[in-house]
Design a protein that fits this description.
There is one protein chain. The longest helix has about 35 residues. Helix content is about 35%, strand content about 20%. It has six helices and nine strands, in the order ααββαβααββββαββ. Strands 3-5-4 form a three-stranded antiparallel β-sheet. A two-stranded antiparallel ribbon has the order 1-2. The protein starts with a helix and ends with a strand. It is of the alpha+beta class and about 220 residues long.
């Protein structure tokens, strides 16, 4: 739905007041329409969630969602038709749901992503190589939970913080930081790893992962050879 000229003008005035910067008519129109579309998306999602919660009252153990393209809250994979399950913990693919049923992992992982690291998390947050992660698992340095496809072949491995209490820190300590820079008069944002802003050994003092990492001044944090 197109916005009226009055609404766009009002957006220009609000933006100037909040940011002390004027937007052209085209810029204000684009930004206002983007904001409207985002608000509509939020309303649609809230309505969809409301109907799911109503259905969940009649199906407390969960149910299958219609359609395709849902994202599993645990492994992050997209689902095919008939390949999902929804309950009080959220959306899971049937592979992860079956793993939960076999008690390979607790269902709470779908709702609390701060309670575990994925392999990608370890690679991106600690600059680890996949081969190093495999070695650490084999040596018992890291304890992994394996989600299998059928009780045998591996689908994905996760690393619960509660299983690695003295090894892995809370994820909030390893979050990247947004950095602003100005180029040609325009503001640009990008993320930088957490260890560029702190002394890693002090920041993660008490967690054994730092016993297995080395920090090179002026470069990214690197693993021990």
């Amino acid at each position: 739905m197109p916005l009226s000229d009055e609404a766009i003008k009002e957006f220009q005035e609000i933006y100037k007041k909040e940011h002390n910067k004027e937007l052209s008519w085209d810029e204000a129109s684009e930004a206002a329409h983007n904001l409207m579309n985002y608000a509509k998306l939020l309303v649609d999602l809230a309505e969809e969630d409301y109907h799911r919660q109503l259905k969940l009252k009649d199906n407390p153990k969960g149910f299958q969602l219609d359609g395709v393209g849902y994202t599993c809250f645990i492994c992050g994979c997209g689902t095919q038709a008939g390949g999902n399950w929804y309950d009080k913990y959220g959306i899971k693919c049937t592979i992860c749901q079956n793993a939960i049923n076999r008690k390979e992992v607790p269902p709470s992982l779908a709702k609390n992503k701060e309670s575990w690291y994925s392999k990608y998390d370890l690679e991106s947050r600690f600059n680890l190589k996949a081969s190093t992660i495999r070695s650490w698992i084999k040596k018992g340095i890291l304890k992994a939970r394996t989600i299998t496809r059928d009780g045998e072949s591996m689908h994905v491995q996760l690393f619960l913080i509660r299983d690695n209490r003295d090894m892995l820190p809370p994820k909030k300590l390893t979050e990247s930081h947004m950095v602003k820079e100005v180029k040609d008069g325009k503001e640009w944002f990008h993320s930088e790893p957490w260890y560029r802003f702190v002394d890693p050994h002090e920041h993660l003092k008490g967690y054994r992962i730092m016993d297995h990492l080395r920090v090179t001044k002026g470069e990214e944090q690197k693993e021990h050879a």
